[in-house]
Design a protein that fits this description.
This protein has 252 residues and is mainly beta. The protein has 2 domains: 170 residues, Jelly Rolls (Sandwich), CATH 2.60.120; 54 residues, Dockerin domain (Type 1 dockerin domain). Helix content is 12%, strand content 46%. The strands form 6 sheets. The chain has a 6-stranded antiparallel sheet with strand order 4-3-8-13-10-11, covered by helices on one side. Strands 1-2-15-9-12 form a 5-stranded antiparallel sheet. Strand 3 and strand 4 form a beta hairpin. The chain starts with a strand and ends with a strand.
Length: 252
């Protein structure tokens, strides 16, 4: 798994600061890949080409009752347990690369949840319907991105430990998908991260508790309700000073 970005947001309340939820992007690499191939040219029937460097998908093509191109589909399995437990997914996409940008056409993407292995049975389930299925278009260009956001809306993603994903392209020319190195297909997951603990003793908002905050704290000393009243008892005193000294240093 690769975390490719992290965007955090800060919120300032009076003279106190706290770091609130941010957005992070994770890319999950497939733990297994394979093709679904055909017998009799057009009947998807068995898994093959496990973890090959290139996978392809196409419709079947017969000329004068002779098969010149059998139907194929590509599939991958991703381990969703690699994601941190405390994140909230907000979008999911399958991203990858084709060897040629002119490989276009229509097709579908489908998902089977909690598949422990890629095999013929899982491949047939993916091809025939899956737990989720959506029509897709293979647009012009080397890169492709297909959304799986509906698996979030129906709870399928969050209730699954793994995702088996299949893509199919109904084109006689075929779509060759790079399946090795950094260009191999990945599951891109955008998540909301949980709130970080508030840094209540950072009175000047510089993300650090230091002498500057101590000076502000002493100015508030005595009976009053202020940002320096950390325990909310209506008075700034030694109890609050203990909170400040306990938080001394960089904020978490």
């Amino acid at each position: 798994m690769r975390k490719i970005s992290s965007i955090m947001g800060c919120l300032f309340l009076g003279m106190a600061s706290g770091v609130h939820a941010g957005t992070e992007i994770y890319e999950l690499e497939a733990v297994q890949s394979a093709s679904m191939s055909s017998t009799g040219c057009c009947s998807i029937s068995y898994a093959s080409n496990f973890n090959a460097s290139t996978l392809s998908t196409r419709t079947c093509q017969e000329v004068y009752m002779s098969c010149i191109g059998s139907r194929r589909a590509a599939m991958w399995r991703f381990d969703l347990s690699e994601l941190p437990d405390d994140v909230i997914p907000v979008s999911v996409h399958l991203v990858g690369t084709r060897t040629e940008r002119y490989m276009t056409g229509s097709g579908f993407i489908s998902v089977v949840s909690n598949a422990s292995d890629l095999n013929t049975q899982v491949g047939l389930q993916l091809y025939n319907s899956g737990h989720y299925r959506s029509n897709i278009n293979w647009n012009y260009g080397n890169d492709f991105t297909f959304t799986l956001n509906s698996t979030l809306n129906n709870g399928l993603f969050t209730k699954s430990e793994s995702f088996a994903v299949m893509v199919y392209g109904s084109t006689t020319f075929g779509i060759n998908i790079t399946n090795s190195g950094s260009s191999a297909p990945k599951l891109r997951v955008v998540v909301d991260t949980p709130d970080a603990p508030p840094c209540v003793a950072d009175l000047d908002g510089d993300n650090e508790v230091n002498a500057s905050d101590l000076g502000i704290f002493l100015w508030f000393w005595g009976p009053n309700s202020s940002p320096a009243d950390f325990n909310g008892d209506g008075v700034v005193n030694a109890s609050d000073l203990g909170v400040l000294l306990g938080a001394w240093g960089a904020c978490p």
